[in-house]
Amino acid sequence: MIARTRAQVLLPILLFSTLLIIPSFGIPIRKVEECLSKCKESFFYHQDRQLLEKCEQICFDKYDGSHGEGIEKKEGEQQRGEGQNRYCYGEENFEYWMKSELGHFKVLERFTERFKLLQGIGNFRLAILEANPRTFVLPSHMDAEELFYVMEGRGVLNVLEISGRNSYDIEQGQIFSFDAGSQAYLINKDDNKKLRIAMLLHPVSSPGRFKEFFDAGGRAPESFYRSFSTKVLEAAFNTTKDRLEKLFGQQRGETINATEEQIKALTEPPTAPGGWFIGPSKQCRRSGVSLTSRQNRVWYSNEHGELYKIYACDYSDLCDLGVEISFANISRGSMMAPHYNSMATLAALVVEGEGYFEMACPHIEQGGTHYQAVRSQVSPGSVFMIPAGHPVVAVASRDENLQVLFLGMNAKHNRVHFLAGGNNVLNHMERVAKELSFNAPARVVDEVFNAQKRAGFLPGPDEIHKEERGTRPWTAI
């Protein structure tokens, strides 16, 4: 036993020593991942979070380029492709905080775990809650401000206030905002569909870290009431130890299957308004804002797609968080025009459909700036990160629409600049500036920039090629 204890203590020390003496130049991205994996193996199971964080920081400091844009790629296309998934998160990047046959709650790894470029949004976290039909989710609160987006299904959300209880009908396309510490519970009232909710969290205690606190429950999940001494609880509730044990000693899980009668009782008419907002009202809190409602802000719309947008300071809650929200429905075979965001870093969560993102990423080299092309296939549940200033394109597959929820962080005063199409910002350049910039006659520059008349959403690469083939004249043989 003593030998085993010594081994457990020595292993972390040896690992730190190894990390400190390994040279850091010319190391490919897979070394960063190997280093992080060793950290988790050594410190996670020792339940020493501080050592784990120090170990992870050493990995990034030694292996992850000094400019924060990642490791330079100088070894051809194969190695350049290794870095593209750094911007795309999949199922393997989520940690399940709760999982059962009735649903799950999973949290995406911290945005800063991969590279320093996303430090500006390091205090935000993304999570997904899923509840099966006719499932009740226990009440809890978090030490984080919460933004909910209903991705699928319908249900009832209850929030407990000092003044009473507010109840809301929720359905796909609605968004709700809650203060840190808000007591909330919900039920999926549908008989067939799952209830899926995307959550953007802004911790208030520790940057990038939050906890969930359960009042109900017992041992699984553990109620925080069990942390107090029996004498304190007996005095607080003015009851006996036996009654307290019956109340806080059960093991039922965070999700519970409800009977038809219980569902009816929990789905009584809502006590607070829901649905969507229109007009200049600033009272977003607890009210629900439907992003996909036609009456709400349609920013761009044509046969190739639609974009619905809520700016950061349209509503007080979003303004306080510095978050803007948009929802893109890109028609199959179409694409969202090349563009970039001036201030916001976006987490693009794929709600439905498949397609891909392409993005230009600058890397500093001795000869100047080199742009790495990042291309990532996406499907439902994928998260693609778009840092501020990075030109990006989203393309839907030929088979189905691509629906994407964009969560823009640090979005106050953010502006979207399109780089192609009828609203190409470069069209505002003077004639001489165009000639000097592109080393070509202004007429040639205008011919290229003005060829695409559509704005916002455009025919995708495959659609353009179809049009070209359809209009190409026959050539005599």
UniProtKB/TrEMBL annotation:
Residues 1-26 form the signal peptide. Residues 92-245, 289-446 form the Cupin type-1 domain. InterPro entries: Cupin_1, RmlC-like_jellyroll, RmlC_Cupin_sf, Seed_Storage-Functional. The keyword Membrane does not apply. SUPFAM superfamilies: RmlC-like cupins (SSF51182). Keywords: Signal. This is Globulin-1 S allele. It comes from Elaeis guineensis var. tenera (Oil palm).
